[in-house]
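A protein record pairs a chain with a discrete description of its three-dimensional fold. The shape at a given residue is found from the number at the same position. Here is what such a record looks like in full:
>
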Amino acid sequence: PGHLRYIEDEIALERLRKLRKERVLTELREERRRRREEDDETSADGDGGGTRSASYRTSGPGDSHIVANVHFVYQRALKRFHYPLELVLNYAEFAKRHGSTNMLGRIYAEGLQRHPRSDGLWIEAASFEYFGNSADDGA
């Protein structure tokens, strides 16, 4: 139970990080647009002053750190609680939302080893293999 609450908090933190990043990038774009307009006006006056460009990295190590941490916590929870089906399905949904296709294949493989009689899990795994993974022979 504590693991799931922690995972939810980390996912909420990732959403906030994405929103903040988008806001900062939007402000940066607006600032660049304003500078360009000001430069156009000053170049029409004949000043010809130099401009400095503000740099902001659009991607960095923080972009994947939270997602990697959530993957780690899911793995720990699965091992600790012996792969409950509901947790396997939640983890698969998380991996789908974040585009972790390599990890999704592993999740389905482990889940099917632990729950070989789960029809829903078999259908999801086959659907992923056929549609999501572009591996016709794997389904």
